[in-house]
Amino acid sequence: MVEGTRAAAMIMIMAMVGATLVSVASAIQGTATFYTPPYVPSSCNGFQNDGVMIAAASDAIWNNRAACNKRYSVRCTGGTNSGVPQPCRGGSVVVKIVDYCPPPGCQATIDLSQEAFAMIADPNAGKIQIEYNEV
User: Is 72:36 a contact under the CB 8 Å cutoff?
Assistant: First the structure.
């Protein structure tokens, strides 16, 4: 019985390591900016209050509204300007897509709420390099 439990535990550990590797390997490179309140109305949910861990998607993610209400994990990987060369604060944030960031005004892959951006980077940077993936 002990050997069966040990084997099951080993399989579980290998599965978790494999899932972590797939998650890291599937991260997509991009850039992020931020926008400020008011956050409603939004393109996806009208006047529904979706909180502050939200974002607007560029054409790279939007897909004719298919991105609405999907959640993305976003992690800062570096700066885009010399004014704030080390903007990243470490960690990541999960945001819900509630709006569209249309061209030509949209200057990034994903436009985070000011609060979400501040969780992962110094807002003085304005624009950052990111890795993101759907969760």
Answer: no
Supply φ then ψ for residue 121, to 5 degrees: -155, 160
pTM of the model: 0.80
Convert the pLDDT of each residue in 117-130 to its tens digit.
999 999 999 999 99
CA distances, 95 to each of 40, 76, 79, 105 (Å): 16, 13, 20, 21
* Distance of alpha carbon 97 from alpha carbon 135, whole angstroms: 12
> Dihedral sign, CA of 75, 76, 80, 83?
positive
Count of other CB atoms within 10 angstroms of residue 16: 10
- How would residue 26 be classed by pLDDT, with cut points 50, 70 and 90? confident
